[in-house]
Amino acid sequence: MALVEDGSTRILELLKGLSTDLRLDQPRHATLPNIFKAKSMVTKKFKPEKLNVEIKSDLEIVQVNDPQKRKTWVIVSSVDELIA
What we know:
Layout: E1 2-3, E2 9-10, H1 32-40, H2 79-83
């Protein structure tokens, strides 16, 4: 939005560019040399305290209920019996 001199507001539409790769629908397969390179890499492990990150859950469990009991099944011998 932009404020115009007379006090009214006008919505400005901006041209946004979007580009994608034409090969998005093709799966990427790992090559054997890259698999071996990945296996030889060392994985670094950090504790959250060292990274100054607090781990907490933003979710609150309000209520937990069991699902409703289903009605017992009845085997019918014909369609007429099912409709009746």
